[in-house]
Amino acid sequence: MTNTVRVRFAPSPTGYLHIGGLRTALYNYLFTKHHDGKFILRIEDTDQSRYVEEAEQDIINSLKWSGIDIDEGPETPGEFGPYRQSERKEMYHTFAEQLIEKGQAYYAFDTTDELDQMRERLKKSGNPSPKYDAITRQSMKNSLTLPQEEVEKRLERGDEYVVRLKVPRRETVRFEDLIRGHVSFETKGLDDQVLLKSDGMPTYHLANVVDDHEMQISHVIRGEEWLSSTPKHVLLYNAFGWEIPQMAHLPLIMSPSGGKLSKRKAESEGIPINTKDYIDQNYEPEALVNFLAYLGWSPGDDSEIHSLDELIELFTMDRVSKGGAVFNHKKLLWYNEHYLREQPDSQIADRLKVISDDGLIDNVNDEYLKSAVGLLKERISKIEEILEMGRFFFEDPKEYDEKALKKWKDESAELVGLYKTEIEELSDFEAGNLKSSLESVINAKDVGFGKLMMPLRIAITGQGFGPDLFASMELLGKEAVTRRIDTALEKLG
């Protein structure tokens, strides 16, 4: 094996890339780039029954959006390809044959019915979890129990078979995990794992081990759910006589209500589950990356905001936690606000033109749009909220917020009318003067600030909240402001 750090992210194209998968990819990427290594994307598409046409492209798009560069993969082939398991089929057969020759694997000809009968028989005799193992294989139809001539005859005849790993009966499998430390399993709990299925496709276990060896993968960094498969992989490495990569099993992502963050739980808690959802909902990629990096890892100080390059610099495996990390959606929005506010107003304005699909800002002057962004961006969590909260910058209010209208009292019309008279006289329609005019009206009428401020906000924006009202009026200009006040006085009286 080379001294270069080589890691792989190896998703199955059975659906869109889950955020748990994105975090696994991110940790692989941070780790390998910290060590100047290579990040490999391998598509594990051996399960043809669950294959989803657009899933592979979704995985590639999601990684690109997140800023994770693929060094080798289906679109960027290197010398260890092909990078789709379905294109490596011949190789798995060769290696399965090698194991049979070494006596480490065997052909099994049992039909589905025969397997069912074996399980039933064992259940009846008091075995709660029957499996095909060192004991039960003795009474089944396989190349260990059948005469050599019959095995050859069956193979020539084209009988259906699977290839199974010959798991030793009483051994302890031990390995060191970079996150969990010393791990051991007893082989008596393992079945004789199928390596090649009857359709000639390899199972995950065989393909995974062969590919990791052939692609010279130095570190296998994957989710905790694969921990129980690792002893089977260790047995396979030993059977081949290969060096085992370093293993690291990442903690689960937990739901705020407890337990693993499943699709169902995420939906009930309003958490987008696929990376595609975050792209479609206009989250900032830097925010999601920064947030996911901290879901199970921390740099050991109080810092929270880091760019991808800084995360690469800081990331070490000894700071990854063993326990699950709770997905806190509020925290993600906090990150999103931060990365949104970091962007220049002009950049956000350009993005809004792409996002807006109802013609609202099609004919808006660039400078005007930029100014509106400047007034709104400190008050929002996600970019599209600018168009929701700031709609009044682009069109007169069509209706008035129900809740806000409770603040429109009997004296409101008179106060707003007086204010309109004041500001019509202004030669310089700027925020400071607009505020002074308001003070002059409330002093003359001897009422509190809110008595005029709230009705005025409703008249101008249709809402009970929003950006600085005087700066907003300055941007809207005298004509729009006085027109809106007239409309409000007419409608609300």
UniProtKB/TrEMBL annotation:
The gene is gltX. This is Glutamate--tRNA ligase. Residues 362-489 form the Aminoacyl-tRNA synthetase class I anticodon-binding domain. PANTHER family: GLUTAMATE--TRNA LIGASE (PTHR43311), GLUTAMATE--TRNA LIGASE, MITOCHONDRIAL-RELATED (PTHR43311:SF2). It catalyses: tRNA(Glu) + L-glutamate + ATP = L-glutamyl-tRNA(Glu) + AMP + diphosphate. Its EC number is 6.1.1.17. Its main location: cytoplasm. Monomer. CDD domains: GluRS_core (cd00808).
